[in-house]
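User: Can you predict the 3D structure for this chain?
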Amino acid sequence: MTMSAEEVSTEAVASPGTGFTPGSADPEIQAAYNRKAIDHAAALNAWRAEVLRERGPRPTTLRPLEKLLPAFDRTALGVAREYDQMGQRPVSEELEARAASAGVTLKHLGLTIGTIIGGVDLRQTDPELLALIRSVLLERKVVFFRDQHLDEDQHVAFARGFGELDAFPFGKPGDNPFILEIHHDETNPGSENGWHTDVTWMERPSLGSIAQMVVCPPVGGDTLFADSHAAYLGLPDGLAERIEHLDGINDYRVFLAGYGRRPIPDDLAEAIKTDIPFGVAHPLVRSHPETGKRALYLHGGFLRHESLFDRRTGETLDPEEARKLVAELLAQHPRPEYHCRFRWEAGSIAFWDNRAVQHYATSDYFPHQRVLRRVTVAGDRPVYAPQ
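Assistant: Here is the predicted structure, written as structure tokens:
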């Protein structure tokens, strides 16, 4: 039986199971749906208002955020908890006063992470300035600078103000051996577009990395940073306790894969393994050696996903259980609530604390050229210290 458009509209709205769906191409059906949707919204809103009246006056004490969020998604809670650890301020009053006294500006990018420091010349390695920068780094996890244009030796000299340096054995060095050059163009697309913290294959992974943009693509090429403290504090219920005493083995097998499809020769690979331990254990939760705060700490490319074990007993997890746990942990840092995003310019510098952040370099500028120089400040062995 053939029905008119009016009959189809009435039948579709009045009876469930007729195949009617919102977004119909028929304007009469869509109009009928919208009228009903508006009526239902008004009725539900009236019902909610009645429920609130029955409950009485609104309580003067707000419910804890834990009670307002679903147990499976604590992302907002992680950010709120970390901001609370920071004293409900982007930086401490003492640090804010020090910066103002030095004529240094602080422009914050995220609630808990990322600050552009202005009014400085990084060619000047004044101890008071370096101490101020370190303080901002500890409170904000990653700091940025504009219009610096350091040469390689100046870049290295600035980095030495924060500790000893680590040379990088697997990349292309600059003229200064402590410079790692990261170069992408139409023959070598960007490949750092995965969330990670640097060099967890080392026994003593780096304190921080200092990168300078030398050649900036006309568009794209931003780097995102994620707050590892907030990511830990926002873990779903029970997950933080589950990983509290777990370690995993990290190695540099990805670099031994070689260049293109040609693996590193066996004799060269064995020589590297002789000098640099191939496989080191690090905790999944590390305590920051300077702030004491806990962070979710792992690199999906260096961690052997099946290798988790309880450091107290040495007991290993079932490999499949370990892989599932690692997959759940690797899903935490990509949540946008934990992020700040930095748009590079030629001469921009980023200095990030590898003990407190992960980062992600977007590969959205092909075929344009993007060239960075990076220096790595040496760190210490990650540990977990119960609070």
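Confidence is low (pLDDT under 50) at residues 1-15. DSSP finds twelve helices and 17 strands in the chain.
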